[in-house]
Amino acid sequence: MSTARTVLETEEHQALRAAVAALGKRYGRDYMTTVVREGKHTDELWAEAAKLGYLGVNLPEEYGGGGGGMAELSIVLEELGAAGSPLLMMIVSPAICGTVIARFGTEEQKRRWLPGLADGTLTMAFGITEPDAGSNSHRITTTARRDGDDWLVTGRKVFVSGVDIADATLIVGRTEDARSGKLKPCLFIVPRDAEGFGRNQIDMELQAPEKQFELVLDDVRLPADALVGDEDAGLLQLFAGLNPERIMTAAFGIGMGRFALAKAVDYARTRQVWKAPIGSHQAIAHPLAAAHIELELARLMMQKAARLYDEGDDIGAGEAANMAKYAAGEACVKAVDQAVHTLGGNGLTSEYGLASLITASRVARIAPVSREMILNYVSHQSLGLPKSY
User: Fold this and answer.
1) Could you give the CA distance from residue 252 to residue 298 in angstroms, rounded to a whole number?
2) Would you state the torsion angle of the CA atoms of residues 25, 35, 204, 200, taken in this order, to the nearest 10 degrees?
3) How many CA atoms lie within 13 A of 281 on its CB side?
4) Maximal C-alpha separation, the chain
5) Which sign, positive or negative, has the C-alpha torsion 74, 80, 82, 85?
6) Most buried of the four, 115, 122, 162, 322, by CB within 10 Å?
7) pTM of the prediction?
8) What is the CB neighbour count within 10 angstroms for residue 178?
């Protein structure tokens, strides 16, 4: 397929894209399916990506990172996904947690976590969703209260990725504002071995190396320095992590869509049932062309969001990141669906590696925020229409 997309990128970005693509090709979809089948984790790929400097490419150089931003990190995840071997924890560990700590953490927190997040020796999960809150983060009931110099955190979280392999989880809770009495969001670093911090794996139809967990926090005692940043700037800090999450979810979806489309295009070029390859028929060719266009458009919005974020425009990045996540989710699902349809019965076989993507592609539509909530955001934030909720 055409690589015209590179003309909008710097030489450094093009080189990064090519290098990560080469790494992804060495592992590929077979590696991921083997890891899932054997109940293992992507330790080898994670370690090699870290050694090459890809995992921490967005983190500050003074803490062992690459000194880049979301533009670079999204390239890494997209290209690994396009090779069939995406690392879902990249969305969580370096993108969300690494960014929040780099921007708002204390000097001690930065020294404690950022070098390890950059070189892959430390991993951090992120817990925000709750059983009774879902998309409504204002209903979060996980609360933290003072007990002397410590914090006591109590609550539940669901659909938290990779807690079993994470050294700590960045938990979104709420504390009481001493002046107003209202609850405000705050972020806490909770070590995996903290007393009262329990986890239960959620059975998922989604087959992925990264497992999903429900968390129970029962008066988990944390030191004062477990609080990330300023207690009064919780909302700002939270969205500083959620915008990278949306950008990286877009990269995840675009990469998956590209992988599926490449499989379908290769098949359509060579599969011959009548006198010519099936790709010569417009009923096959045009839907694949449309899928390619939608993936390219989604990438453009993702690049815009990444650039705005890296330039410090949090408000502009928020709008673009939501749009990028929406566009990528839709493009990913359509590309996977058309790829499976192009292969017919072969699209449902294990040999071609597409059938499992039917479920996986929905992740980009559902998480970390549903497409309906993004449409709500755009309708009232971008268009100025009244809220329905």
Assistant:
1) 11
2) -130
3) 13
4) 80
5) negative
6) 322
7) 0.95
8) 8
Q: Which two tokens stand for residue 364?
A: 């980009």
Q: Which residue do the tokens 């999204």 mark?
A: 74
Decide: 237 and 100 in contact? Cβ < 8 Å. Answer: yes
Between CA 182 and CA 228 the distance in angstroms is 20
Rounded to an integer, what distance in angstroms lies between the CA atom of residue 211 and that of residue 225?
Answer: 29
Cα angle: 174, vertex 180, 181; to 5 degrees: 50
What does the chain come to in residues?
A: 389
Residue 282 — φ and ψ, nearest 5°? -65, -30
Nearest-angstrom CA–CA distance, 174 and 144: 6
Residue that the structure tokens 């949090």 belong to: 314
- 119's tokens: 């070189």
Start-to-end Cα distance in the chain: 44
What are 376's two structure tokens? 């709500």
Closest to 120 in 3D by CA, of 46, 224, 211:
46
Q: Are β-strands 212-222 and 168-176 bridged in parallel, bridged antiparallel, or unpaired?
A: unpaired
Q: Kindly state the tokens that stand for 125.
A: 């999960």
- Alpha-carbon distance of 220 to 193, in angstroms, equals 10
| Bridge partner residues of 145 (DSSP) | 152
For residue 97 the two structure tokens come to 């947690």
Q: Are 246 and 305 in contact (CB under 8 A)?
A: yes
Q: Which helix (H) or strand (E) holds 107?
A: helix 107-119
pLDDT in tens, the chain (389 residues): 444 454 579 999 999 999 999 999 999 999 999 999 999 999 999 999 999 999 999 999 999 999 999 999 999 999 999 999 999 999 999 999 999 999 999 999 999 999 999 999 999 999 999 998 776 777 889 999 999 999 999 999 999 999 999 999 999 999 876 566 677 889 999 999 999 999 999 999 998 999 999 999 999 999 999 999 877 666 777 778 899 999 999 999 999 999 999 999 999 999 999 899 999 999 999 999 999 999 999 999 999 999 999 999 999 999 999 999 999 999 999 999 999 999 999 999 999 999 999 999 999 999 999 999 999 999 999 999 999 87
